Structures
1.
Amino acid sequence: MKEYYLTFGGLEQYFMEYEAGNDKPVLLYVHGGPGRAESLIGWEIDGRIGKDVNLVFYDQRGAGRTYYKNAGEMPTYEQVYSDLCEIVKYFRQKYKKKIFIMGHGWGTVPAIRYVRENPDMVAGYIGYAQCVDYTSVGKVRCDRVLELARACNAKGDIKAVEKLSEKTGGTFHRDMLRKGEITKLNKLLTKYNVAYGTDRVLMKKIPASPTYMMFDLKILINCPKINVKLSEYYKHVNLYEESMEYKVPLMFISGDWDYQDPYTMVKDYASKVKAPMVEMKLVEDGTASAMFDKSVEFWASVKDYIVKCANF
């Protein structure tokens, strides 16, 4: 494993690389968030797939050790995307082969757009908890809460969801709610295990990393404040409004209990895109943290997909 900084877009950015040899494929991991660096869980991912691929992790602007090195930087989407373009080019030249790109959550937004716009650089794409239409994600999540509340006849929760629906015109957009109503919504989402994200998992996993330092956890806690512009941008992402034609193989993988980035939306999107190969993998009983909850099944599916891509 190697740790180092490279300068892209005028900014020193942190990289962690697990080398398996030039004869192996290259997998670049674009982390979620915004601002949730995942390089320090690379050791666990390497344990699952490291013998089969060269793994490359990096901390985006405003995240992890890249932020620690450049305190005060408040990134924009344009900067994050431009960085990704330069980073892919660098590793494409380093390994002298097209590379696989794996996006997670927020990271799937710049990643899948890059893949669509630069097919000559990419061997294949893996969207883990793919963001599809963030403008509608609140409604999908709350419809799921309502479904579960009705199943157990939780009349108080049913009434609460219906009131929030009426208040927002059925959209459940948080911008239309008061602070107390947002708190109520968050409690309902947590109660029914609909959307809690990967934050809790990272909080537990990162301190176990062999390269962990105390400041890493502090950065993880504080990064949401640094990524205000990206978080606002994220709210308006809707891939249905963009081209759905791709020239490289695509794989989408989600837990079948994931409503953080709802698997139902990912499944629908996967059925509509055009690409040389499209694979939709649902990890049984997997949540938003399927990569860890069901790690054996998850990474076996990723490895199988990479092998299949050798035929394209």
2.
Amino acid sequence: REMERHVADTDMQSSRSYLPARATPTGKSVVIVGSGPAGLAAADYLVRTGHACTVVDRHAHAGGSLRSGVDEKTLPREVLDWEIAQLERLGVQFKLGVELGSVVTLEGLSRGFDVILLTLGEMAKGEGRELGLALTPAGFQIDPETHQTSLRRVFAAGSAVKPVKQVVRAMSEGQSAAACIHQFLSGQKMHRREKEFSSMMGRLENGE
């Protein structure tokens, strides 16, 4: 992790920072409601696979819990801002200070975008009911294999579905939902990505 951070910090200070390649535009569009770790990870995946991607958030600055719940020493704000700027360079559009509710609705978003992804973080029950989606005691009810809610073109991930305490897990859920959305938009059978490995180290043997 320290090596990866060193590479990223060096790249950030470069006048020609690395920018991943984007696939050929698909003509499909996705709106992500919520700019926390799940939403940003999903935006990165979707824009790189060729889909037009817009992130909507009610706050004045993107980042969600990365900005409000992670201390400055662990995640310096200039690093977060730079990473968000990188997403903008890739083509992600951010519309901030926009709240899902009376002005911006699921119905309205569904007319302007092919798919909606909800990464709102932990919500009050009233908020979920107002959106007209099926709920569980923890959040939005989704198909665990596809991240699809009770509405066909609306997906959900992260703490909007169930509490996620680790940033890396929230990002993983965002990427997983984005992969399912890509499959949906491509006309493929949707399925959650297999976990490639476990990051938890088990008990070490004496020789190890």
